[in-house]
Structures are given as C-alpha cells and as structure tokens.
Amino acid sequence: MLSLNPSNLKALWNKGNVLFDLNRYEDAIKSYDQFLIEIPNFLEILEKKAEAMINLNKPQEAIECYKDFIENKTDAQKLDWFDKILKIDKNNVWALMKKH
User: Fewer Cβ neighbours under 10 Å: the N or C end of the chain?
Assistant: First the structure.
C-alpha cells in the first residue's frame, strides 16, 4: 500500500505505530516525519514521535516535538504541554518561563 501511494497519511500513521509497537523507534520516527511533512503539528503524531524519542533516550528531541506543537496553540491549550516537557526535564527553562 505504501509503495503505491507514499503520501497516504493513514498508512504512514499505521506504519509508524506498528514500528513503534515493535520497538523500532527510529523507523517509527521516520514514518511520523513523513506524515508531518503533509500535516505539521498533528497532535497524535507529535505525541508518538516524542514517546519514541523518550524510548531512544533522546529527551531533548522529545521536548522539541512538544515545543513544535505548543507554538501554535492558545494559552489554555499550552498548559498541559508545558507539564509534559517538565516531566521530561523539570528544570527546562523554556517551559518554566512560558508556563508562568
């Protein structure tokens, strides 16, 4: 299916999730990145990409995923995302400053 239509977003999402479930996080991230080219800042994909980064012990990259999403949200929507960043890095200056 992907070889016939690589821009098929549902297929990219499913592929990424299957790879994630198989602990193939690098490959899952590649699939998620392909999806994000078409629809940047898509919540569920950014969350899964951040989780994959955390599983690869790449907390700063996970934080960047959250930052990308936060930049386009209202103040009320941002609070939960600042908390997600602070769970990864409780001293993250950017999240601490933006949250208050």
Answer: C
